[in-house]
Write a structure and sequence with these properties.
This protein has 278 residues and is an alpha+beta fold. It has three domains: 47 residues, no CATH class; 76 residues; 115 residues, endopeptidase fold (from Nostoc punctiforme) (Alpha-Beta Complex). Helices cover 48% and strands 13% of the residues.
Length: 278
């Protein structure tokens, strides 16, 4: 091969490793040939040796490798960012869940404490009401041994007419009969049993117990009573005793086992309120 030989360069998009090695070998051989030719040239050669050598170009393979490396780096970075975002989201969700649980526990504890306080207050109110009813019953059951509180005077109100007169007359006719808890006549009554029996004479069917009777009809003032009105002791809807107002400031009621059905003055034991059914 001449020392001025030109080695052509062949560029292709991609080369395999074996082709790159082959070209490197060819290039090495060419350089060796050039070296030998230079050694064999006359020492007095006037013209310098000019060589034009084109080395194999590997730019395509290197660019492809670099691009692949950059893409892999980007993929790894994206994966790391995704994992970091997922970890941050999981941590935030865990904090939110813990806060929600703490808030729920606090609300539950507050609700439990409130319910307990309300239950205790209701228990105290019920106990006070029971004590009040017990004291009232004790007062009703106390009667004078000299007979001053066991009057059996029969009173017929001249102002009672119609159904009211029938109720008053029936109540007065029961004075002197026995008091028996749960009895509704005809030889014995309890307080609400007497009131119910009196109103049944005029076709009015009242509730059985004093609590319900005290909430039946229209509430009226004690200063505006009429014969036949129902008197109650306690509060409307939870009364512990009832009787019938017969006029003239008196009432008839089945008081207690020791006194039975009696007629009393309102001054003897002033009722709490009254209702008018007729």
């Amino acid at each position: 091969m001449s020392h001025t030989a030109h080695i052509p360069s062949h560029r292709k998009p991609r080369r395999s490793a074996s082709k790159v090695s082959l070209r490197a070998g060819v290039a090495g051989g060419v350089l060796s040939t050039i070296a030998l030719a230079g050694a064999a040239a006359p020492a007095n050669a006037a013209q310098p040796v000019t060589e034009t050598i084109e080395m194999p170009t590997l730019t395509g393979d290197l660019a492809t490798t670099a691009a692949a490396t950059v893409q892999a780096t980007k993929t790894v970075a994206a994966d790391l960012q995704l994992h970091a975002a997922q970890d941050a989201a999981a941590s935030s969700a865990a904090k939110d869940a813990k806060k929600a649980k703490d808030d729920a526990d606090q609300k539950a504890a507050e609700a439990e404490a409130k319910a307990k306080a309300e239950a205790e207050a209701k228990a105290k109110a019920d106990a006070a009401a029971r004590a009040s009813r017990s004291a009232a019953r004790t007062k009703l059951s106390s009667s004078s041994s000299d007979g001053s509180t066991s009057s059996t005077t029969t009173f017929k109100s001249s102002s009672a007419t119609g159904s009211a007169a029938s109720i008053v007359n029936f109540a007065l006719a029961q004075v002197g009969k026995a008091y028996v808890s749960g009895a509704t006549g005809s030889s014995a009554y309890d307080c609400s049993g007497l009131v119910q029996a009196a109103y049944r004479q005029v076709g009015v069917d009242l509730p059985r117990v004093s609590q319900d009777q005290s909430a039946t009809g229209t509430q009226v003032s004690l200063s505006n009573l009429q014969p036949g009105d129902i008197l109650y002791w306690g509060s409307s809807g939870s009364a512990y005793h009832v009787a019938i107002y017969v006029g003239g400031g008196n009432f008839v009621g089945a008081q207690n086992p020791s006194s039975g059905v009696v007629e009393r003055s309102l001054d003897w034991d002033s009722p709490t309120g009254a209702v008018r059914v007729l």
